[in-house]
Design goal:
It contains 6 helices and no strands. With about 130 residues, it is mostly helical. The protein has one domain.
Length: about 130
């Protein structure tokens, strides 16, 4: 797959350039170097690198808009399947709400690396958990 030079692209914001540079230097979130370097960052930068606020609130829709639509569809499929299972089993509303918040966090932590793979590495697979430490 082709690698894109994001540093000179005026269409990419400084926030994304910072995220992409971190992924370039330290690897995927499941890499030991990534974990070690992430621990050294201040709290705000950890959140910037590790999570995406838009994806937390808007889930797979935000992920699809940012680029990796295949991963967004995979996440949406997982969310729908688990929701159907909860409805069939008759889970209490609190369990559904709790799982919903869990899915929001899952979307938030999967987004940045998925966008990096799509825009920088040119990889557009269906696995939303590629390179993640879950």
């Amino acid at each position: 797959m082709a690698t894109v030079d994001y540093r000179s692209d005026p269409g990419i914001s400084e926030k994304w350039k910072k995220r992409f540079a971190f992924f370039d230097q330290y690897g995927a979130p499941n890499a030991p170097a990534y974990k070690d370097e992430l621990k050294k960052l201040p709290f705000g930068e950890k959140i910037l690198i590790n999570a995406n606020v838009w994806s937390f609130f808007f889930g797979p829709l935000a992920i699809a808009i940012m680029g990796p639509w295949r991963k967004a569809l995979s996440l949406l499929g997982i969310i729908i399947a688990v929701s159907i299972v909860l409805a069939v089993v008759g889970a209490p509303p609190a369990a559904s709400r709790g799982l919903g918040v869990g899915f929001n966090f899952l979307c938030a932590i999967c987004t940045n690396y998925a966008v990096y793979l799509k825009k920088v590495k040119g990889q557009d697979g269906w696995n939303p958990f590629e390179g993640m430490r879950l």
